[in-house]
Amino acid sequence: PHSVPLPRLGRGGMGGTQSLALPQAKGPHQVGCTDVMVGHTQQGLFLRLFYPCLPQAAPEHPLWIPRSQYFGGMADVAQRSRHWCAPLLSVAIGSCRVPVSWNGPLKPCSSGYPLVIFSHGLGAFRTLYSSVCSELASWGFVVAALEHRWVLWSPWCPRGAAGAPVTLPSCHCRDHSASTTYFCTAEAGREEWIPYRRVPQGQKEFYFRKQQVHQRAEECVRALQLFEDISSGKSVPNVLPQDFDLSVLKDSVDLTKVAVMGHSFGGVTAVLALVKEPRFRCAVALDAWMFPLENALYPEVPKPVLFINTEKFQTPESIAKMKRLSSRNSQTKIITILGSVHHSHTDFTFLTGKLISRIFSARGTLDPYKGLDITSRAALAFLQRHLNLEEEFDQWDNLLEGIGDSIVPETPLGRSNL
């Protein structure tokens, strides 16, 4: 529960003004957005793509929570009754839209945009980090925000006669780390929804989460392979009925400049992805939950990591794990944003007003717009350094040393809410 990025239900007054606005990206590019689902089984990939796009006169802005089923999933993660919580969430945030151009035309780039694969936190899904993903896209990145659901064999997965995994509705081998997700079967119009799964009773959390984080990291690698296929000219049909043709990405993504990024459980997923895939040149971990990474893997992390922590989440044990990595690689950085809480890296931090405050407790004392600026600028400086970009993001290099307003190097210990 401590790693779940969805806000807990809290107390507060009703009424008052409220804002459902997510921030407009500040970079020089307009941002387009589309959903991509590849394959008709739960082994397929599902992601939301953010990319620089051509300006449009009246762009369509997609809903932030794309389907009503996600409200039930959010209620499950918050351990609240779907009967009352899901409708309340639907009323409170169901009209919120993301200020990007839905299926907007890609802005061509002959040199290719660098690519970031983004991994969500436990109990989240592909749209809950739209603010940071669209911000990076506005500065010239293609960002693929995964929705984790891939099947991988596990010791708890039933086996068939030939040793192959048997897919069952309740099979433990599914990742189940999104609040809910779905895939489209080969039967036209039919969807199968996959629920969020808690640690099974009697099973140690470390072993369960270790299995999940390995599955998630493998899925990040498969997402990179998807872009390799597109760049090589392979036909990659999108199962979803979208107007966006993936083949337009063929010559506009630079696959020599690829990073992986994530929040919480997604943060440690990003670190592990560096071990599994040498084409990932660096990782940005937002308030990483380091618990699931086995000790034997720390010496195996070959590339630099930028840990951007919040003031109220990390424990001394988690920071010690991060320092094990920074002691092995001088380019690995650890910084903490003061006045922030674990959910400050999610879009929930921008939902204001007393009605919303009654449902969510997702804001620290720091202005969320300032927090997003610090996060995105530090990430951009780090990505420029390790992807060898010819931009001016190095103007924010001081943030990587923890120098600046509302930021410190490493962490002020003793303030965790864990």
Helicity, as a percent range: 25-40%
Total DSSP E strands: 14
CATH fold node name: Rossmann fold
What can be said about the biggest beta sheet? 10 strands, mixed
Q: Going across the biggest sheet, name each strand in turn.
A: 4-2-3-6-5-9-10-11-12-14
How does CATH name the architecture?
3-Layer(aba) Sandwich
Mean pLDDT: 82
Beginning-to-end CA distance, first to last residue: 10 Å
Helix-strand category: alpha/beta
Alpha-carbon Rg, integer? 20 Å
Task: Enumerate how many helices there are, as a single number.
Answer: 9
Q: How many domain regions?
A: 1
Give the DSSP E fraction (strand runs of 2 or more residues).
Answer: 15-25%
What form results from the Cα inertia axes? globular
Secondary-structure element series? EEEHHEEHEEEHEHEEHEEHHHE
Low-confidence stretches: 1-18, 150-176, 414-418
The CATH superfamily appears as: Alpha/Beta hydrolase fold, catalytic domain
CATH structural class: Alpha Beta
Keywords: Hydrolase, Lipid degradation, Lipid metabolism
Pfam family, one: PAF-AH_p_II
EC number: 3.1.1.47
Protein name: 1-alkyl-2-acetylglycerophosphocholine esterase
